[in-house]
């Protein structure tokens, strides 16, 4: 609970400073709905008054709703830059594709392992804990 109170305080201090540029980094991913609503209302006020807001987030719906421009970074490099809704749509399409590929690989690997087991091969099952025990220094 204390952590969330610190975040509320930090955001309150940040938005009450007369700044030309305001950096908001994933702060709205924590806190309750009431806190998020108040934050967005204040950010909207600041935006309308001419403050530049750099909003760093993975919350695609918030980006679409609040931002006019988005920059998609990958490994510290600009992958896409443009109108927020378009960039979010590209990002979501890419993430869904990656998820589909990962699911396909999992299903395909399971089929290969099942076939090998049918043919009499045995595989030792590893969990995160057994891997950690086997590979820790």
Description:
By secondary structure, this protein is an alpha+beta fold. It has one domain (2-123): Rossmann fold. It is built from 5 helices and 4 strands. The chain has helices at residues 2-15, 33-48, 60-66, 84-118, 128-135; strands spanning 21-25, 52-56, 69-74, 77-83. The strands form 2 sheets. It has a two-stranded parallel sheet. The longest helix has 35 residues, at 84-118. It is elongated and about 70 Å long.
List its traits.
137 residues; two-stranded antiparallel sheet; alpha+beta; 5 helices
Poorly predicted regions: none
Number of domains: 1
* Total strands: 4
For the termini, the CA-CA separation is 36 Å
CATH topology: Rossmann fold
Question: By CATH's scheme, which homologous superfamily applies?
Answer: P-loop containing nucleotide triphosphate hydrolases
- Helix amount: 55-70%
Can you tell me the overall shape? elongated
In DSSP terms (H or I, runs of 4 or more residues), the helix count works out at 5
Q: Could you give the order of strands across the largest sheet?
A: 1-2
- Give the name of the CATH architecture: 3-Layer(aba) Sandwich
Radius of gyration: 22 Å
Q: If you average the pLDDT, what whole number results?
A: 80
Order of helices and strands: HEHEHEEHH
The largest sheet is:
2 strands, parallel
CATH class: Alpha Beta
């Amino acid at each position: 609970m204390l952590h969330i109170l610190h975040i509320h305080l930090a955001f309150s201090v940040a938005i009450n400073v007369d700044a030309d540029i305001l950096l908001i980094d994933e702060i709205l991913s924590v806190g309750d709905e009431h806190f998020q609503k108040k934050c967005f209302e204040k950010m909207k006020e600041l935006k309308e008054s001419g403050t530049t807001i750099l909003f760093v987030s993975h919350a695609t719906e918030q980006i679409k709703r609040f931002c006019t421009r988005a920059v998609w970074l990958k490994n510290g490099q600009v992958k896409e830059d443009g109108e927020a809704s378009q960039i979010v749509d590209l990002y979501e399409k890419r993430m869904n594709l990656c998820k589909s590929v990962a699911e396909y690989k999992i299903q395909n690997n399971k089929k290969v392992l099942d076939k090998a087991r049918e043919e009499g091969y045995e595989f030792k099952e590893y969990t995160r804990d057994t891997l950690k025990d086997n590979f820790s220094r």
